Amino acid sequence: MLGSGETDFGPQLKSLSKKLFTVVAWDPRGYGHSRPPDRDFPVDFYERDAKDAVDLMKALNFKKVSLLGWSGGGLTALIAAAKYPAHISKMVIWGAIAYITDEDQRIYEGIRDVSKWSEKARKPLEALYGYDYFAKTCAKWVDGMQQFKHLDGNICRHLLPQVQCPTLIVHGEKDPLVPRFHADFLHKHVRGSQEQANHRQGLELTVVRLDVHRRALPWQVASDARRETQPAFTFCK
């Protein structure tokens, strides 16, 4: 929610070798530096984001890309991989979901009021957006997520079997916003996925995030990347 390349991936963007990689940090419309317009949340906003991302890659003349998506970005990546398979080579997602439950809705309501967030979580987003836009858009995001309950909670659940690219699914054991059952569901429904059993209880998501970016991006030896990062648990297709 409201994350951007600048706030969420700054260290990785600075550290990745510019000789080895061409990295595009894409902000969805209304997020980060993709403003104007202000962010809105029609029922198809994730599908709109996925199309926007693929259209951007086409405009930049990239025929195929590898995706990294965290949280809502992971959900967007899943949709992009399912709907535009010819353009997606490989994918890493973490902290992602395909549907929402009553438990998720309660969690989202708990973060609606940004004045109750910790200063550490709030400060970077306030600096990027200003308090008013940040607070207003956070509340709108919660409302946007709640509308999926009228679709039996489905966001992209029906698209998962269409994902064809090699996919690494990562999840933090202590993720406070996304319960583990979401990663289990993705593992079950993304075709051909296998549990790698790299479980290390207590490893923080921030460490996973940093290591996945540093080591999993090269892709040449996926098993070595998994062995080195040792996230809380991973599934790899």
From TrEMBL:
Domain AB hydrolase-1: 4-121
Gene Ontology MF: a single term: serine hydrolase activity
Protein name: Valacyclovir hydrolase isoform X4
Keyword vocabulary terms for this entry: Hydrolase
Record keyword Nucleus present: no
Listed SUPFAM superfamilies: alpha/beta-Hydrolases
Highest taxon listed in the record's lineage: Eukaryota
PANTHER family for this protein: VALACYCLOVIR HYDROLASE
Pfam families recorded: Abhydrolase_1
Organism annotation: Heterocephalus glaber (Naked mole rat)
